[in-house]
Amino acid sequence: MARVRRRSRDDIQRELVKIRLASEHESAEWINNFLDRFWLIYEPVLSATIVATADQILSTNTPAFLDSLRLSTFTLGTKAPRIDKVRTFPKTADDIIMMDWGISFTPNDVEDLTPRQLANKVNPKVVLSVRLGKGFATASMPILVEDITFSGLMRIRMKLMTNFPHVQIVDVCFLEKPVIDYVLKPIGGETFGFDIANVSRIVPPTVNELNTFTQVPGLSSFIRDMTHGILGPMMYDPNVFTLNLEQMLSGKPLDTAVGVVQVTVRAARGIKGTKIGGGTPDPYITLSINERAELARTKYQNNTFNPTWNETKFVLVNSLQESLVLTLWDYNDHRKDFLMGSTSFELSKLLEDATQEDIRSLILKDGKDRGELRYDVSYYPVLEAAEGEELPETSAGIVRLTLHQAKDLDASKSLSGDLNPMAKVFLGDSRKPSHATTAFKHTNSPVWESAHEFLCADKASSVVTIKVIDDRDFLKDPVIGYMSIKLTDLLASKDEAGRDWFPLSGCQSSLHGAEQYTPPIGVVRLLLDKATDVKNVEATLGGKDRSLGTVDLHVNDLAKQSQDNQYPFESTGPKVASDPIRLPGNAYKGVLHYRATFIPAMALNGVSFDKRDTTTQMVNDTVSTSSSDQNTPVPLTSKSSPRSLSPPTAATPSPANSSPASSSPVLEANSAEQEGVSKEEQKSKGVDMSVDELLAQQSGIIVFNIVSGNIAKKARLEVLLNDGYWPCFSTTKARSTHAQWDFTGEGFIKEIDFNRVWLRLNAADEGDRDDVVAEWKGDAKAFLRSTLNAVHTFTLVNDDDDNVSTVKIETRYVPVHVKLELRESFINQGVLHVELLDAQKLHAADRGGKSDPYAVFSLNGDKVFKSQVKKKTLSPEWNETFDVEVPSRVGADFEIEVFDWDQMGSSDTLGTAKINLEDVEPFQAVERTLNLFSSKHGEKGHVRIRMNFRPLIIAKTRKNTSTFSNAGRAVTQIGALPVTAGISAGKGVFHGVTGLFKHAPRESEEQPETSDPPSGQASHPVGVTAHPTAFPVGAAGLESNGSSEPGTLKVTILNAKDLSGGETKPYTVIRVGDKEVKTKYVAKTATPEWNESFNFSAGPHTAKLYVWIHEHKTIGKDKDLGDGEVDIWRHIQPRGNTAAEVSLELRQGGLLRLRLEYDSALRPSGSGASISSDERPPPPPKAPSITHSPSRFSIGGRSRRTVTDAE
């Protein structure tokens, strides 16, 4: 009996509970208690997500009268929303749950808060940043919304299912209009803003409420009615807002295509209608879904009422419950196309029969018949694999490309430093974009989340190009950067973790961290022969270098994978090609003739850098130098591609060099990642080498990890190798003097025993004139030895030992076995010592049967030496010497021409002779007899010379440009896309020359190195041995090595070129000490030759020689063309009889050549007469005159003495 009572009581209680659930509300304090604690953790994440999402939506939906609309601040405060009451409906289907929730969000209600919660309370606040104006004339205005409150009664209905997440559909609606309140301050912000939407009320004038008494009549009710008007159709009962959780969590986008509809437009017959203004129409058909965006169109047919197209178009469809609309248009050249009518086809018919042929539909406009359209429609659904089966591999399919975001875009291409980026997608060689994202205003890291689907007919040959463009209102939209990648490579990267970021070409990229580095697989050697019929841009305005076009070099034509673990890739052989030069817009102009060869790199273990805390890595050894070397690097590679990026398929070769060939860009690939090999397996397949074994390899790739630096000025670090002509790569410009670069780059080195490394801090932006802050130079082998196993600190200084900066660098070295040709070897360049001995049996040019011969030597078209004139002889004896820098013995055009001097007219040529330098062995004197030949006299006479060649790296300088300061980017694999080749030249190669220099006398290792000329100066000795000794620098050093008594300094102004004024009448002013002289001015020319000599008194305290070049003006003030200064004792010795030829780079641009000859035993005379270079100097004076070297800027404070030829 007790059991019966107990069961009856339980049944009655359950029934009463059911009745109470449906008729009464119950509290939910347990979940409110949970929300109070969970809200403090979840609210910051929720607010950040809302800002990221809403900010992009607002940016893309900005009204036309505003420049931008951004959500800058959003927070919901620290007080959590509450569930005030819950009512459940038990009498529903078994898979349906329905409840009514009373919810409220009242952050200003503080009665239930503790004192501690009140002290830490944060109120809800939303700040909307509105920018007014256009272009540069814009201003930002914040709109503030705060004190937000909300309450309402919500009904939630959930439909359950057996599969995860077990809730299929959630329907949400408000049973009544919710109550919303807020404070709106559109002007003044938090400090001076006032609430324009609040109802009028009298409030105490407290600090917190002083701004809440003003109102705009009717605005509050207008905003409230607008809110209800928008939300009503969406989620006010009986309307519901539906969330399909099953579809959302399935991973398939809601707008994905379900198939492809093939439409073949056959013809139209009996078209009715004429062109505006009369005439026969030019009809064409456009395709769309439900009259939305145009998806395809046919070509137009000229002047016909019965057009025939027979064109097939493919349309992606998201649903077969829509209509395909075919619209007939009349094409017009100068007016808007005219709508002639349309017809529609219900896609649901394709569910019954996937192929509908010979469909005939009436073309209607305003309900009237406008003709008949004939077409076919076929449907091809997307293949879906059955459970447990895999889809077959096909070459055709639908590609869904989603552009998520970009970050750290190159803002240097914006006039204001602020970008409005958008992305455009191009397929294959099409010049018309297939998709374009919306433009986001004023951001360098846009988040597009823009998806695009397209039909791919052949996956293997499809190429996708994405261009990021700066959307400008009034100017042409520039391309910030671009990337091109094969579709197969793009699809393969989807399955690799972390391979969702891709570097952009044509811009500065910030993705160069050490942890992202990928080892190289080899180099490409390029020999650039010639370019023909290139575009003429000489008439284009602007002083910077201008592109003549690009050539694509497919790396997979040069290399392939091998079975050798030591060399995973191998060459397919040299490629000799003549490819057209592509201009922007896929036009072509000119042909580039070149030869390309792939050279594999050794697969080493440990070619990577560990991510480290740079603040804890202190290295004791510090390398410091203040010398200015003449080394110039070979342009090889630039920035490395990150491991996390999808490997681009090509690299940009280096810019053009003056020699016919140059070393190649480095190709990179993580071959183990491409083949799906783990890091452990990759290490086991690589080669392990010690430091000594690595440094025994003559050629290879140096991988630099620029860690950090303390620099004197915000600048970028450039790394140069070898001859220093172009940087191998450049870091980004440091944001502060405490730089944290973590930048990885590469450079190819040809001969480790002879090459040098040059670190240079450049404060100028890329593309601007160089502004070198400090630099460091050193031997490549010593540099590698100190940086291969640890981070090393290098000290960089300028020529005055100022701007002291330190940089931390770590390196790796990857050997590449290159057989160097002679043109690429260190022994190909250097200083040639020439002795002009005599001549015999010259042609008699004078009436008396004699000649007045003198000889002129020229190298590659430039005059390098002119001898003295020998009077009345056919067998002159000169016995004169000079040195000349030879940048490349291979192909050098070195010749001598003998003239007959004529006092009244121009000199007559007596003959020329070519001098071959390729077979001149270094450090071995060779005597040659050269037969002279002239077109007028034939072969007549011969000249005897003696030569001695000393190898030396010749520094080259770039004139007025920093263009292409980065030599390109590295490639990460051999397949896929082409290398875009900016023209670069290789430098030849020779193997096994290490023993050649053992014949030269060497100083001990402890002896200090010879000081190099400062920046802007280069010299070589004249008439001395091929091995000059070190010169002391500074007055103290000079006095300790020679007498303090002054000697005679003879300065010969030879010639100049590349002056800033173009063709002028230039003359030169020279100043040594307090004596100033000037040359004659020459006739209008861009390459003046003076050959005038002057004698000066010079001693240990005469440190510098000052030079100014002016343009002679008959009327008006002479114009300055350039100026410079020469450190005298850096080029010649303060004792004995020494001479040197100096090349001086002028500050305003241009190069001046002068010769310095110093005799310490010859005391200077009081006269400052100028002597010709063809005459002997005057006899030694008897009375010395000691002068000092005042500042160049003190000229105006004293009387000037100018000695001219007239004196």
Overview of the structural elements:
With 1207 residues, this protein is mainly β. 10% of the residues lie in helices and 39% in strands. The chain has 12 helices and 59 strands. The strands form 14 sheets. Strands 1, 2, 3, 4, 5, 6, 7 and 8 form an 8-stranded antiparallel sheet that branches. Strand 25 and strand 26 form a beta hairpin. It starts with a helix and ends with a strand.
State the low-pLDDT regions, or none.
199-214, 509-514, 613-684, 959-1015, 1024-1042, 1166-1207
Beta-strand fraction estimate: 35-45%
**Integer average pLDDT:** 76
Helicity level: 10-25%
| Class based on secondary structure composition and strand pairing | mainly beta
Oligomer: single chain
Summarize the biggest pleated sheet.
8 strands, antiparallel
- Counted by DSSP, the helix tally is 12
Report, as a whole number of angstroms, the end-to-end distance: 147 Å
How many beta-strand elements? 59
Backbone shape: elongated
Work out the radius of gyration: 41 Å
